[in-house]
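Sample intake sheet
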Amino acid sequence: MAPLREPIVSLLGHVDHGKTTLLDRIAGSVRAAKEAGGITQHIGAIEVPGEVVRRLCEGILRTDQFSVPGLLFVDTPGHRSFETMRRRGGALADLAVLVVDVREGIMPQTRESIQILRHEKTPFVVALTKIDLVTGWRKPTGPVPLLDQIRRGASEFQTTLDARLYSVAEELVGAGFSAERFDRVSDFTRNVGIVPVSARSGIGVPELIALLVGLAQRFLQDELRQVEGRGEATILERSDQKGVGPVGSVILYRGHLRVGDEVVVTGREAPFAARIRGIFRPVPVKAEKSGRHVRLLSLAEVTAAAGVYLSVPGIEDALPGGLLRVVEGDEERARVTEELTQESHPVTDVAPSGVALYADTLGGLEALAFECREKQIPVHEAGVGPVGRPTILRMADVKEPTHRAVLAFNVPILGDALPEGDQGPVRVFEGEVMYRLIEEYTKWQTERLRSLQAERRLALTHPAKLEVLAGYVFRASKPAIVGIKVLGGTLRPGVRLMHPNGEEVGLLRSLQRENESVSAAEEREELAASIDGAVVGRNLKEGDVLLVSLTEGAARALRGQTLTPRESEILEEVVRLHRASRPFWGQ
Protein backbone atom coordinates (compact mmCIF):
# COMPACT_ATOMS: atom_id res chain seq x y z
CA MET A 1 0.00 0.00 0.00
CA ALA A 2 1.31 3.46 -0.98
CA PRO A 3 2.56 5.65 1.87
CA LEU A 4 0.60 8.72 2.94
CA ARG A 5 1.66 12.29 2.29
CA GLU A 6 1.18 15.18 4.71
CA PRO A 7 -2.34 16.62 4.71
CA ILE A 8 -2.38 20.24 3.50
CA VAL A 9 -4.09 22.45 6.08
CA SER A 10 -5.30 26.03 5.55
CA LEU A 11 -6.33 28.59 8.17
CA LEU A 12 -9.11 31.02 7.35
CA GLY A 13 -11.52 33.33 9.09
CA HIS A 14 -12.24 36.99 9.85
CA VAL A 15 -9.52 39.65 9.87
CA ASP A 16 -7.66 39.95 13.21
CA HIS A 17 -9.16 36.82 14.72
CA GLY A 18 -5.72 35.31 15.29
CA LYS A 19 -4.78 33.29 12.17
CA THR A 20 -1.22 34.61 12.02
CA THR A 21 -0.67 34.30 15.79
CA LEU A 22 -1.87 30.70 15.72
CA LEU A 23 0.42 29.86 12.80
CA ASP A 24 3.33 31.52 14.62
CA ARG A 25 2.56 29.42 17.71
CA ILE A 26 2.50 26.22 15.61
CA ALA A 27 5.80 27.14 13.96
CA GLY A 28 7.27 28.06 17.36
CA SER A 29 6.15 24.72 18.82
CA VAL A 30 7.96 22.95 16.00
CA ARG A 31 11.14 24.95 16.52
CA ALA A 32 10.97 24.48 20.28
CA ALA A 33 10.73 20.71 19.82
CA LYS A 34 14.38 20.80 18.61
CA GLU A 35 13.96 17.66 16.53
CA ALA A 36 16.71 16.62 14.15
CA GLY A 37 16.83 19.13 11.33
CA GLY A 38 14.56 21.61 13.09
CA ILE A 39 11.57 22.97 11.20
CA THR A 40 11.63 22.14 7.51
CA GLN A 41 11.32 25.47 5.73
CA HIS A 42 8.81 25.58 2.87
CA ILE A 43 7.58 28.28 0.53
CA GLY A 44 4.39 29.66 2.01
CA ALA A 45 3.98 26.63 4.25
CA ILE A 46 4.91 25.32 7.69
CA GLU A 47 5.60 21.60 7.99
CA VAL A 48 4.96 19.90 11.31
CA PRO A 49 6.94 16.61 10.97
CA GLY A 50 5.52 13.41 12.37
CA GLU A 51 8.04 13.24 15.21
CA VAL A 52 7.04 16.74 16.33
CA VAL A 53 3.34 15.86 16.16
CA ARG A 54 4.01 12.82 18.38
CA ARG A 55 5.78 14.95 20.93
CA LEU A 56 3.19 17.76 20.87
CA CYS A 57 0.31 15.30 21.14
CA GLU A 58 1.89 13.02 23.71
CA GLY A 59 -0.89 11.82 26.00
CA ILE A 60 -3.53 12.70 23.39
CA LEU A 61 -2.59 10.36 20.52
CA ARG A 62 -0.97 6.95 20.97
CA THR A 63 1.91 6.01 18.65
CA ASP A 64 -0.18 3.26 17.07
CA GLN A 65 -2.88 5.84 16.25
CA PHE A 66 -0.50 7.84 14.10
CA SER A 67 0.12 7.10 10.41
CA VAL A 68 0.42 10.43 8.53
CA PRO A 69 4.00 11.72 8.17
CA GLY A 70 3.03 15.14 9.56
CA LEU A 71 0.97 18.19 8.62
CA LEU A 72 1.67 20.95 6.08
CA PHE A 73 0.06 24.25 7.11
CA VAL A 74 -0.30 26.58 4.13
CA ASP A 75 0.57 30.09 5.26
CA THR A 76 -2.47 31.78 3.75
CA PRO A 77 -2.24 35.04 5.72
CA GLY A 78 1.16 35.71 4.11
CA HIS A 79 0.26 34.48 0.65
CA ARG A 80 -3.16 33.88 -0.87
CA SER A 81 -6.45 33.33 0.83
CA PHE A 82 -7.94 29.84 0.94
CA GLU A 83 -10.32 30.41 -1.94
CA THR A 84 -7.58 31.56 -4.34
CA MET A 85 -5.42 28.45 -3.95
CA ARG A 86 -6.70 25.69 -6.19
CA ARG A 87 -5.67 22.31 -7.42
CA ARG A 88 -7.16 19.99 -10.00
CA GLY A 89 -10.55 18.99 -8.62
CA GLY A 90 -11.03 21.70 -5.97
CA ALA A 91 -9.36 23.60 -3.17
CA LEU A 92 -5.66 23.11 -2.49
CA ALA A 93 -6.20 22.36 1.20
CA ASP A 94 -7.27 18.88 2.38
CA LEU A 95 -8.37 20.27 5.74
CA ALA A 96 -9.12 23.71 7.12
CA VAL A 97 -9.06 25.47 10.46
CA LEU A 98 -11.77 28.12 10.83
CA VAL A 99 -10.31 30.67 13.27
CA VAL A 100 -12.90 32.49 15.42
CA ASP A 101 -12.17 35.07 18.13
CA VAL A 102 -13.99 33.91 21.29
CA ARG A 103 -14.96 37.51 22.09
CA GLU A 104 -16.36 38.49 18.68
CA GLY A 105 -17.78 35.19 17.43
CA ILE A 106 -18.89 34.72 13.82
CA MET A 107 -18.25 37.86 11.76
CA PRO A 108 -19.11 38.66 8.11
CA GLN A 109 -15.79 37.37 6.74
CA THR A 110 -16.18 34.23 8.87
CA ARG A 111 -19.54 33.62 7.21
CA GLU A 112 -17.89 34.03 3.82
CA SER A 113 -15.27 31.46 4.86
CA ILE A 114 -18.01 29.04 5.96
CA GLN A 115 -19.72 29.44 2.59
CA ILE A 116 -16.45 28.62 0.84
CA LEU A 117 -15.85 25.54 3.01
CA ARG A 118 -19.37 24.32 2.28
CA HIS A 119 -18.92 24.95 -1.44
CA GLU A 120 -15.60 23.08 -1.50
CA LYS A 121 -16.83 20.31 0.84
CA THR A 122 -13.59 20.72 2.82
CA PRO A 123 -13.49 19.04 6.26
CA PHE A 124 -12.71 21.62 8.92
CA VAL A 125 -12.39 22.28 12.64
CA VAL A 126 -13.00 25.51 14.54
CA ALA A 127 -10.20 27.08 16.56
CA LEU A 128 -11.89 29.30 19.16
CA THR A 129 -8.97 31.63 19.80
CA LYS A 130 -7.95 34.16 22.48
CA ILE A 131 -9.55 32.24 25.36
CA ASP A 132 -6.85 33.73 27.60
CA LEU A 133 -8.73 37.05 27.29
CA VAL A 134 -11.93 35.63 28.80
CA THR A 135 -12.55 36.82 32.36
CA GLY A 136 -11.49 34.20 34.91
CA TRP A 137 -8.61 32.73 32.84
CA ARG A 138 -5.76 31.52 35.02
CA LYS A 139 -2.29 31.68 33.56
CA PRO A 140 -0.77 28.17 33.23
CA THR A 141 2.60 27.51 34.86
CA GLY A 142 3.66 25.13 32.06
CA PRO A 143 2.28 22.81 29.39
CA VAL A 144 -1.21 21.82 30.55
CA PRO A 145 -3.84 19.73 28.73
CA LEU A 146 -6.62 21.94 27.44
CA LEU A 147 -9.44 20.33 29.42
CA ASP A 148 -7.40 20.56 32.65
CA GLN A 149 -6.75 24.25 31.95
CA ILE A 150 -10.48 24.87 31.42
CA ARG A 151 -11.25 23.12 34.72
CA ARG A 152 -8.57 25.21 36.47
CA GLY A 153 -10.29 28.43 35.34
CA ALA A 154 -12.72 30.32 37.55
CA SER A 155 -16.38 29.41 37.30
CA GLU A 156 -17.01 32.66 35.43
CA PHE A 157 -14.41 31.62 32.85
CA GLN A 158 -16.02 28.21 32.33
CA THR A 159 -19.54 29.67 32.05
CA THR A 160 -18.50 32.43 29.65
CA LEU A 161 -16.42 30.09 27.50
CA ASP A 162 -19.30 27.61 27.19
CA ALA A 163 -21.78 30.38 26.36
CA ARG A 164 -19.60 31.82 23.61
CA LEU A 165 -18.72 28.39 22.26
CA TYR A 166 -22.41 27.50 21.92
CA SER A 167 -23.13 30.88 20.34
CA VAL A 168 -20.62 29.97 17.60
CA ALA A 169 -22.16 26.50 17.36
CA GLU A 170 -25.62 28.03 16.82
CA GLU A 171 -24.29 30.22 14.01
CA LEU A 172 -22.77 27.15 12.36
CA VAL A 173 -26.11 25.35 12.61
CA GLY A 174 -27.63 28.28 10.70
CA ALA A 175 -25.04 27.67 7.96
CA GLY A 176 -25.86 23.96 7.81
CA PHE A 177 -23.23 22.50 10.17
CA SER A 178 -23.77 20.79 13.51
CA ALA A 179 -20.97 21.74 15.93
CA GLU A 180 -19.85 20.90 19.47
CA ARG A 181 -16.77 21.16 21.69
CA PHE A 182 -14.29 18.62 20.31
CA ASP A 183 -14.25 16.35 23.38
CA ARG A 184 -18.06 16.08 23.29
CA VAL A 185 -18.21 14.95 19.65
CA SER A 186 -18.85 11.24 19.16
CA ASP A 187 -19.18 11.27 15.35
CA PHE A 188 -17.01 13.69 13.35
CA THR A 189 -18.85 12.76 10.15
CA ARG A 190 -21.88 14.58 11.58
CA ASN A 191 -20.35 17.26 13.82
CA VAL A 192 -17.69 19.95 13.51
CA GLY A 193 -15.28 19.97 16.45
CA ILE A 194 -14.61 23.28 18.22
CA VAL A 195 -11.24 23.55 19.99
CA PRO A 196 -10.71 26.44 22.47
CA VAL A 197 -7.18 27.78 21.95
CA SER A 198 -4.82 30.29 23.52
CA ALA A 199 -2.14 30.86 20.89
CA ARG A 200 -0.14 33.09 23.24
CA SER A 201 0.27 30.32 25.85
CA GLY A 202 0.03 27.34 23.50
CA ILE A 203 -2.95 25.88 25.38
CA GLY A 204 -5.19 23.94 22.99
CA VAL A 205 -2.64 23.77 20.14
CA PRO A 206 -1.75 20.07 20.76
CA GLU A 207 -5.47 19.17 20.85
CA LEU A 208 -6.05 21.10 17.62
CA ILE A 209 -3.21 19.29 15.85
CA ALA A 210 -4.34 15.92 17.22
CA LEU A 211 -7.86 16.55 15.91
CA LEU A 212 -6.52 17.44 12.45
CA VAL A 213 -4.41 14.27 12.39
CA GLY A 214 -7.42 12.20 13.44
CA LEU A 215 -9.64 13.70 10.75
CA ALA A 216 -6.98 13.18 8.08
CA GLN A 217 -6.43 9.53 8.98
CA ARG A 218 -10.13 8.83 9.30
CA PHE A 219 -11.49 10.55 6.20
CA LEU A 220 -8.65 11.38 3.78
CA GLN A 221 -6.79 8.10 3.28
CA ASP A 222 -7.41 8.04 -0.50
CA GLU A 223 -6.51 11.68 -1.06
CA LEU A 224 -3.30 11.30 0.95
CA ARG A 225 -2.04 8.31 -1.03
CA GLN A 226 -0.79 10.66 -3.73
CA VAL A 227 2.93 10.43 -3.04
CA GLU A 228 3.69 8.36 -6.11
CA GLY A 229 3.18 9.41 -9.72
CA ARG A 230 3.74 12.54 -11.78
CA GLY A 231 3.82 15.80 -9.92
CA GLU A 232 0.96 18.25 -9.73
CA ALA A 233 1.38 21.63 -8.03
CA THR A 234 -0.40 24.94 -7.46
CA ILE A 235 1.41 28.17 -8.37
CA LEU A 236 1.23 30.66 -5.50
CA GLU A 237 3.22 33.54 -6.97
CA ARG A 238 6.24 34.51 -9.04
CA SER A 239 9.39 36.23 -7.78
CA ASP A 240 13.11 36.77 -8.39
CA GLN A 241 15.61 35.00 -6.13
CA LYS A 242 19.23 36.13 -5.88
CA GLY A 243 21.52 33.76 -7.71
CA VAL A 244 18.63 31.85 -9.28
CA GLY A 245 16.55 34.39 -11.19
CA PRO A 246 12.82 34.14 -11.86
CA VAL A 247 11.13 31.35 -9.89
CA GLY A 248 7.63 30.19 -9.15
CA SER A 249 6.52 29.52 -5.57
CA VAL A 250 4.49 26.30 -5.72
CA ILE A 251 2.77 23.87 -3.38
CA LEU A 252 3.27 20.29 -4.58
CA TYR A 253 0.14 18.36 -3.61
CA ARG A 254 0.56 15.16 -5.61
CA GLY A 255 3.44 12.97 -6.81
CA HIS A 256 7.08 13.89 -7.51
CA LEU A 257 8.90 16.78 -9.16
CA ARG A 258 12.40 16.17 -10.50
CA VAL A 259 14.96 18.39 -12.19
CA GLY A 260 14.58 17.77 -15.93
CA ASP A 261 10.88 16.89 -15.77
CA GLU A 262 8.77 18.41 -18.54
CA VAL A 263 5.86 20.39 -17.12
CA VAL A 264 2.85 22.22 -18.51
CA VAL A 265 2.13 25.49 -16.67
CA THR A 266 -0.96 27.69 -16.64
CA GLY A 267 0.16 30.95 -18.25
CA ARG A 268 -1.38 34.39 -18.34
CA GLU A 269 -2.12 34.12 -22.05
CA ALA A 270 -2.15 30.34 -22.49
CA PRO A 271 -0.59 27.19 -20.95
CA PHE A 272 3.03 26.58 -21.91
CA ALA A 273 5.43 23.63 -21.71
CA ALA A 274 9.01 23.73 -20.37
CA ARG A 275 11.49 21.65 -18.35
CA ILE A 276 12.36 22.15 -14.70
CA ARG A 277 15.84 23.63 -14.39
CA GLY A 278 16.01 23.69 -10.63
CA ILE A 279 14.14 22.93 -7.41
CA PHE A 280 14.96 25.03 -4.35
CA ARG A 281 14.01 25.16 -0.69
CA PRO A 282 15.28 27.65 1.93
CA VAL A 283 17.93 26.25 4.23
CA PRO A 284 16.66 25.13 7.69
CA VAL A 285 15.98 28.00 10.08
CA LYS A 286 18.62 26.92 12.60
CA ALA A 287 21.31 27.05 9.89
CA GLU A 288 20.56 30.69 9.03
CA LYS A 289 22.68 33.48 10.41
CA SER A 290 20.90 36.50 11.79
CA GLY A 291 20.62 39.41 9.36
CA ARG A 292 21.49 37.43 6.25
CA HIS A 293 19.24 36.71 3.29
CA VAL A 294 17.68 33.27 3.19
CA ARG A 295 19.89 30.89 1.25
CA LEU A 296 18.40 28.30 -1.06
CA LEU A 297 19.13 24.59 -0.98
CA SER A 298 19.12 22.95 -4.40
CA LEU A 299 17.21 19.66 -4.60
CA ALA A 300 17.24 16.96 -7.26
CA GLU A 301 13.63 16.03 -6.51
CA VAL A 302 10.81 16.65 -4.07
CA THR A 303 7.79 14.60 -3.01
CA ALA A 304 4.29 15.77 -2.06
CA ALA A 305 3.34 17.56 0.01
CA ALA A 306 5.83 20.43 -0.06
CA GLY A 307 6.30 24.10 -0.84
CA VAL A 308 9.29 24.90 -3.09
CA TYR A 309 10.70 27.38 -5.59
CA LEU A 310 10.89 26.11 -9.18
CA SER A 311 13.14 27.50 -11.86
CA VAL A 312 11.34 26.91 -15.16
CA PRO A 313 11.84 28.83 -18.44
CA GLY A 314 8.93 31.23 -18.87
CA ILE A 315 7.81 30.96 -15.21
CA GLU A 316 7.54 34.78 -15.07
CA ASP A 317 4.46 34.37 -17.32
CA ALA A 318 2.80 31.83 -15.01
CA LEU A 319 -0.65 32.65 -13.68
CA PRO A 320 -0.90 32.79 -9.84
CA GLY A 321 -3.47 30.24 -8.73
CA GLY A 322 -2.85 28.20 -11.85
CA LEU A 323 -1.51 24.66 -12.08
CA LEU A 324 1.77 23.00 -12.96
CA ARG A 325 1.71 19.35 -14.06
CA VAL A 326 4.43 16.91 -15.12
CA VAL A 327 3.89 15.32 -18.56
CA GLU A 328 5.58 12.69 -20.69
CA GLY A 329 5.31 12.62 -24.48
CA ASP A 330 3.52 14.68 -27.11
CA GLU A 331 0.09 13.13 -26.59
CA GLU A 332 0.00 13.79 -22.84
CA ARG A 333 1.40 17.28 -23.31
CA ALA A 334 -1.41 18.14 -25.74
CA ARG A 335 -4.08 16.65 -23.46
CA VAL A 336 -2.86 18.44 -20.32
CA THR A 337 -2.47 21.72 -22.25
CA GLU A 338 -6.13 21.47 -23.27
CA GLU A 339 -7.18 20.68 -19.68
CA LEU A 340 -5.27 23.66 -18.28
CA THR A 341 -6.75 25.90 -20.97
CA GLN A 342 -10.21 24.97 -19.70
CA GLU A 343 -9.09 25.37 -16.05
CA SER A 344 -7.90 28.90 -16.83
CA HIS A 345 -11.42 29.98 -17.78
CA PRO A 346 -13.44 29.21 -14.63
CA VAL A 347 -16.31 31.54 -15.62
CA THR A 348 -18.15 29.91 -18.51
CA ASP A 349 -21.75 31.03 -17.96
CA VAL A 350 -21.31 34.63 -19.16
CA ALA A 351 -24.44 36.72 -19.73
CA PRO A 352 -25.21 39.28 -22.47
CA SER A 353 -25.65 41.85 -19.70
CA GLY A 354 -23.77 41.50 -16.43
CA VAL A 355 -20.85 42.78 -14.36
CA ALA A 356 -17.14 42.26 -15.00
CA LEU A 357 -15.05 40.25 -12.53
CA TYR A 358 -11.28 40.55 -12.12
CA ALA A 359 -9.07 38.85 -9.52
CA ASP A 360 -5.40 38.27 -8.79
CA THR A 361 -5.60 34.49 -9.19
CA LEU A 362 -7.71 31.91 -10.96
CA GLY A 363 -9.03 30.59 -7.67
CA GLY A 364 -9.97 34.08 -6.55
CA LEU A 365 -11.83 34.61 -9.82
CA GLU A 366 -13.65 31.30 -9.45
CA ALA A 367 -14.63 32.10 -5.85
CA LEU A 368 -15.86 35.57 -6.82
CA ALA A 369 -17.91 34.09 -9.67
CA PHE A 370 -19.41 31.55 -7.25
CA GLU A 371 -20.43 34.31 -4.83
CA CYS A 372 -22.03 36.24 -7.69
CA ARG A 373 -24.01 33.16 -8.75
CA GLU A 374 -25.18 32.72 -5.14
CA LYS A 375 -26.39 36.35 -5.12
CA GLN A 376 -27.87 36.00 -8.64
CA ILE A 377 -25.52 38.64 -10.07
CA PRO A 378 -24.95 37.93 -13.80
CA VAL A 379 -21.38 38.04 -15.14
CA HIS A 380 -20.59 39.50 -18.56
CA GLU A 381 -16.81 39.05 -18.58
CA ALA A 382 -14.05 37.85 -16.25
CA GLY A 383 -10.28 37.85 -16.11
CA VAL A 384 -7.13 37.58 -14.00
CA GLY A 385 -4.96 40.65 -13.57
CA PRO A 386 -5.30 44.45 -13.41
CA VAL A 387 -8.28 46.41 -14.73
CA GLY A 388 -7.43 48.62 -17.70
CA ARG A 389 -9.16 51.08 -20.05
CA PRO A 390 -10.33 48.43 -22.60
CA THR A 391 -12.39 46.70 -19.87
CA ILE A 392 -14.07 50.01 -18.95
CA LEU A 393 -14.89 50.76 -22.59
CA ARG A 394 -16.44 47.31 -23.09
CA MET A 395 -18.49 47.56 -19.89
CA ALA A 396 -19.78 51.02 -20.88
CA ASP A 397 -21.62 49.30 -23.75
CA VAL A 398 -23.45 46.83 -21.48
CA LYS A 399 -27.20 47.28 -22.00
CA GLU A 400 -28.40 47.30 -18.37
CA PRO A 401 -27.08 50.41 -16.50
CA THR A 402 -26.97 48.58 -13.14
CA HIS A 403 -24.57 46.03 -14.69
CA ARG A 404 -22.04 48.64 -15.84
CA ALA A 405 -19.70 47.75 -13.00
CA VAL A 406 -16.37 46.01 -12.39
CA LEU A 407 -15.65 43.98 -9.24
CA ALA A 408 -11.87 43.99 -8.77
CA PHE A 409 -10.70 41.51 -6.11
CA ASN A 410 -7.14 42.16 -4.92
CA VAL A 411 -6.02 43.64 -8.27
CA PRO A 412 -4.88 47.17 -9.19
CA ILE A 413 -6.82 49.62 -11.37
CA LEU A 414 -4.50 51.00 -14.07
CA GLY A 415 -4.05 54.76 -14.28
CA ASP A 416 -5.81 55.20 -17.63
CA ALA A 417 -8.82 53.07 -16.68
CA LEU A 418 -10.95 55.83 -15.13
CA PRO A 419 -9.97 59.26 -16.45
CA GLU A 420 -13.44 60.55 -15.43
CA GLY A 421 -13.13 59.15 -11.89
CA ASP A 422 -16.37 58.06 -10.23
CA GLN A 423 -18.36 60.25 -12.65
CA GLY A 424 -17.68 57.94 -15.60
CA PRO A 425 -20.19 55.52 -17.14
CA VAL A 426 -18.74 52.47 -15.34
CA ARG A 427 -18.43 52.00 -11.57
CA VAL A 428 -15.39 50.09 -10.28
CA PHE A 429 -15.43 48.36 -6.89
CA GLU A 430 -12.03 47.27 -5.58
CA GLY A 431 -10.87 45.58 -2.39
CA GLU A 432 -9.28 42.59 -0.72
CA VAL A 433 -12.39 41.26 1.05
CA MET A 434 -14.79 39.49 -1.26
CA TYR A 435 -18.00 39.87 0.70
CA ARG A 436 -17.46 43.64 0.94
CA LEU A 437 -17.13 43.89 -2.84
CA ILE A 438 -20.44 42.08 -3.25
CA GLU A 439 -22.09 44.23 -0.54
CA GLU A 440 -20.84 47.49 -2.06
CA TYR A 441 -22.00 46.48 -5.53
CA THR A 442 -25.48 45.37 -4.42
CA LYS A 443 -25.92 48.59 -2.40
CA TRP A 444 -24.88 50.67 -5.43
CA GLN A 445 -27.12 48.58 -7.70
CA THR A 446 -30.15 49.26 -5.44
CA GLU A 447 -29.42 53.00 -5.31
CA ARG A 448 -28.77 53.14 -9.07
CA LEU A 449 -32.01 51.29 -9.80
CA ARG A 450 -33.94 53.71 -7.59
CA SER A 451 -32.30 56.66 -9.37
CA LEU A 452 -33.11 55.21 -12.80
CA GLN A 453 -36.72 54.64 -11.81
CA ALA A 454 -36.95 58.25 -10.70
CA GLU A 455 -35.47 59.38 -14.02
CA ARG A 456 -37.92 57.22 -15.93
CA ARG A 457 -40.80 58.64 -13.91
CA LEU A 458 -39.70 62.12 -14.89
CA ALA A 459 -39.49 61.08 -18.53
CA LEU A 460 -43.08 59.77 -18.45
CA THR A 461 -46.12 62.04 -18.58
CA HIS A 462 -47.61 61.56 -15.13
CA PRO A 463 -51.27 61.76 -14.13
CA ALA A 464 -52.28 65.02 -12.50
CA LYS A 465 -55.46 67.04 -11.89
CA LEU A 466 -55.91 70.78 -11.43
CA GLU A 467 -58.58 73.48 -10.93
CA VAL A 468 -58.68 76.92 -12.61
CA LEU A 469 -59.11 79.39 -9.74
CA ALA A 470 -61.93 81.93 -9.94
CA GLY A 471 -60.81 85.54 -10.02
CA TYR A 472 -57.29 84.77 -11.25
CA VAL A 473 -57.34 85.23 -15.04
CA PHE A 474 -54.24 87.25 -15.92
CA ARG A 475 -54.45 86.85 -19.72
CA ALA A 476 -57.26 85.37 -21.79
CA SER A 477 -55.20 83.87 -24.66
CA LYS A 478 -51.91 83.60 -26.65
CA PRO A 479 -51.10 82.13 -24.14
CA ALA A 480 -53.78 82.11 -21.51
CA ILE A 481 -52.35 82.82 -18.04
CA VAL A 482 -54.50 81.73 -15.12
CA GLY A 483 -54.22 80.88 -11.47
CA ILE A 484 -54.54 77.16 -10.71
CA LYS A 485 -54.58 74.77 -7.77
CA VAL A 486 -53.12 71.24 -8.08
CA LEU A 487 -55.76 68.77 -6.93
CA GLY A 488 -53.65 65.63 -7.24
CA GLY A 489 -50.44 64.20 -8.69
CA THR A 490 -47.37 66.18 -9.74
CA LEU A 491 -47.90 68.78 -12.46
CA ARG A 492 -44.99 69.59 -14.80
CA PRO A 493 -44.70 71.94 -17.82
CA GLY A 494 -44.79 70.34 -21.25
CA VAL A 495 -47.95 68.25 -20.76
CA ARG A 496 -51.24 68.61 -22.63
CA LEU A 497 -54.39 69.40 -20.65
CA MET A 498 -57.96 68.26 -21.26
CA HIS A 499 -61.43 68.46 -19.79
CA PRO A 500 -62.83 65.36 -17.97
CA ASN A 501 -64.93 64.69 -21.09
CA GLY A 502 -61.79 64.34 -23.23
CA GLU A 503 -61.96 67.77 -24.93
CA GLU A 504 -58.44 69.17 -25.47
CA VAL A 505 -57.56 72.51 -23.87
CA GLY A 506 -53.92 73.13 -24.80
CA LEU A 507 -50.26 72.74 -23.86
CA LEU A 508 -49.04 73.72 -20.37
CA ARG A 509 -46.09 75.91 -21.32
CA SER A 510 -44.83 76.96 -17.86
CA LEU A 511 -45.57 77.27 -14.15
CA GLN A 512 -44.70 80.30 -11.99
CA ARG A 513 -44.74 80.91 -8.25
CA GLU A 514 -44.16 84.51 -7.10
CA ASN A 515 -42.80 85.41 -10.57
CA GLU A 516 -40.26 82.55 -10.46
CA SER A 517 -40.51 79.64 -12.90
CA VAL A 518 -40.80 76.20 -11.28
CA SER A 519 -40.25 72.76 -12.77
CA ALA A 520 -43.07 70.99 -10.90
CA ALA A 521 -46.02 71.59 -8.58
CA GLU A 522 -47.36 69.16 -6.01
CA GLU A 523 -50.86 68.53 -4.66
CA ARG A 524 -52.51 71.56 -2.94
CA GLU A 525 -50.05 74.08 -4.40
CA GLU A 526 -51.47 77.26 -5.95
CA LEU A 527 -49.59 79.11 -8.70
CA ALA A 528 -49.87 80.65 -12.18
CA ALA A 529 -50.02 78.52 -15.32
CA SER A 530 -49.33 79.55 -18.94
CA ILE A 531 -51.41 77.45 -21.38
CA ASP A 532 -50.90 77.58 -25.16
CA GLY A 533 -54.11 77.01 -27.15
CA ALA A 534 -56.44 77.91 -24.28
CA VAL A 535 -58.87 80.79 -24.71
CA VAL A 536 -60.64 81.93 -21.54
CA GLY A 537 -64.40 82.17 -22.22
CA ARG A 538 -64.20 79.73 -25.15
CA ASN A 539 -62.52 76.38 -24.21
CA LEU A 540 -61.52 77.40 -20.69
CA LYS A 541 -63.32 79.17 -17.88
CA GLU A 542 -62.86 79.89 -14.17
CA GLY A 543 -63.67 76.90 -11.93
CA ASP A 544 -62.88 74.30 -14.65
CA VAL A 545 -61.24 71.06 -13.49
CA LEU A 546 -58.63 69.76 -15.95
CA LEU A 547 -56.69 66.50 -16.35
CA VAL A 548 -53.25 65.84 -17.82
CA SER A 549 -53.84 64.14 -21.17
CA LEU A 550 -52.11 60.75 -21.44
CA THR A 551 -51.29 58.73 -24.54
CA GLU A 552 -52.25 55.07 -24.53
CA GLY A 553 -48.56 54.07 -24.39
CA ALA A 554 -47.93 56.35 -21.40
CA ALA A 555 -50.94 54.92 -19.56
CA ARG A 556 -49.73 51.40 -20.22
CA ALA A 557 -46.19 52.24 -19.00
CA LEU A 558 -47.53 53.96 -15.87
CA ARG A 559 -49.27 50.77 -14.80
CA GLY A 560 -45.81 49.26 -14.26
CA GLN A 561 -44.60 52.19 -12.16
CA THR A 562 -44.94 52.92 -8.45
CA LEU A 563 -47.65 55.58 -8.18
CA THR A 564 -49.16 57.35 -5.18
CA PRO A 565 -52.76 56.40 -4.34
CA ARG A 566 -53.95 59.79 -5.70
CA GLU A 567 -51.97 59.34 -8.94
CA SER A 568 -53.49 55.89 -9.37
CA GLU A 569 -57.01 57.35 -8.94
CA ILE A 570 -56.36 60.01 -11.59
CA LEU A 571 -54.87 57.44 -13.97
CA GLU A 572 -57.95 55.23 -13.62
CA GLU A 573 -60.17 58.25 -14.30
CA VAL A 574 -58.31 58.89 -17.58
CA VAL A 575 -58.47 55.19 -18.51
CA ARG A 576 -62.27 55.06 -17.86
CA LEU A 577 -62.75 58.14 -20.04
CA HIS A 578 -61.01 56.53 -23.02
CA ARG A 579 -62.55 53.09 -22.51
CA ALA A 580 -66.01 54.57 -22.92
CA SER A 581 -65.26 54.50 -26.66
CA ARG A 582 -62.35 52.01 -26.77
CA PRO A 583 -62.89 49.14 -24.25
CA PHE A 584 -59.26 47.89 -24.27
CA TRP A 585 -57.51 51.27 -24.20
CA GLY A 586 -54.33 51.25 -22.11
CA GLN A 587 -54.11 47.46 -21.63
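Comment: The first strand starts at residue 8 and ends at 13. The first helix runs from residue 19 to 33.
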